Amino acid sequence: AGSGAGADMRTEISTAAAFVTRLLRAAGGVGEEQLRCFRECLQEAMLEHYKHHWFPLVPSKGSGYRCIRINHKMDPLIGKAAGMIGLSHERLFQLLPSELTLWVDPFEVSYRIGEDGSICVLYESPQPGGKAAKQLESRTSCKEEWRIGRSSPSKSYNMMTVSS
Question: Which InterPro entries does this UniProt record tie to the protein (predicted)?
Answer without folding.
Answer: Anti_prolifrtn, BTG, BTG-like_sf
